[in-house]
Amino acid sequence: METLPDLPEEILFNIFSRLPAKSIGKCRCLSKQWLNLLSTKQFIKSHLARVKQENLILTTPSHTIRSVDTIKGYDRGTVSRELAVAGRWIASFGSCDGLLLLLNNARDLFLVNPITLEQVKIPNSPVAFNLYGGDTIYGFGYDSVRDDYKVVKVCYHAKQSRVGIFDTFVAMYAYYTKKGFWERLESPPYDYTCPLIPSGAYVNGAYHWVGAWSRDLDCNVIAAFDFANEVFSEILPPSGVDIEDLLHFTIGVLGGCLCVIDAINDTEGLDVWIMKEYGVTDSWSKFSLAVGEYHFGDLFKPLCFIGDREEGEVVLVIEGTRLVAYNLKEGTSMDVVVDRVPGKFVDGCTFMESLVSPVTLCGHREEQASV
Q1: Three-state SS string across 138-194, please?
Q2: What SMART domains has UniProt attached to this entry (predicted)?
Q3: Per-residue pLDDT tens for 136-193?
Q4: Of 309, 308, 247, 260, which Cα lies nearest the Cα of 288?
Q5: For all residues of the chain together, what is the average pLDDT?
Q6: Are 78 and 336 in contact (CB under 8 A)?
Q7: What would you measure as the largest C-alpha separation in the chain, in angstroms?
Q8: pTM for the full model?
Q9: SS3 content of the chain, % helix, strand, coil (to 5)
Q10: Helix segments in 20-179, DSSP class H
């Protein structure tokens, strides 16, 4: 059996940091030296900084999750593979540094690395408004000040009083992976945080959703919660876009940029806006596409770019059941057929291949998913 090359660690570090995460996982099995080197926090961060490849995750009606490689383009029969991650998954709440925040059919939250297949159950959050019903949205991201990943939960509850006036309650919690427990945060200064189809986006270190000022319920805003400083701010919508009608407005991420979809009433079309420079209102850029007739409450969600961001294609979830690729240059759209995925699926999001371990982050407080 041939011996492994005896190279200085600096050279090995440089070489390995350029490889795909899956290949590095195999190399870890070849020697103890390589395992130790490729498992260090420094190496994992260095590798993450080089990652450019976006992969697509789809959750299906059978509660499985499937991975679709989107970096090299696709034909109209894109191949997918089912991830061997135990659980019956019903929703995804985005990704950060290669980790997914997933919800299973028992309403448990998990952090999952779809490359290493590691998973950790997030402890149940404080009940608060869950006792009374209401709406909840979740976000997941990285806290650069604490060098920690955390899950945020925004709970909204409205209860009609005897005089017909709605009393509204909003609470916000954060789960810190290093601490291993939830903490109550300052409540958002917004009364209404959840549209008919809860949507949000983690971009530029902040989580974004649609809210309404408590002092003026007719004034909706794009609210932003900074993960590092734990403060709220607002992002101005594109000029001329009315975000008062939450039934036709979705927030998402597209190519690392904040994105909003405005489902235009009675036109059977969508306006998709991308904020090319974060926080700069004048950087909003729009393209429109026709999707045919859609129904009340349909889900529209941007997913990823394929090819050039100016003249390539954009993949979107339409009506919660279709993947559509829109050609930016030609102004045409076409349904994307994914092998082994039924015509209808639940949701999707993108992630970067990484070696970040949810088990290590959570101090080995892992729990297995309920199958």
Answers
A1: EEEEEECCCCEEEEEEEEEEEEECCCCCEEEEEEEEEEECCCCEEEEECCCCEEECC
A2: FBOX (SM00256)
A3: 788 899 999 999 999 998 877 766 555 445 556 677 889 999 888 899 988 877 765 5
A4: 260
A5: 77
A6: yes
A7: 83
A8: 0.82
A9: 10, 45, 45
A10: 21-27, 32-38, 41-50
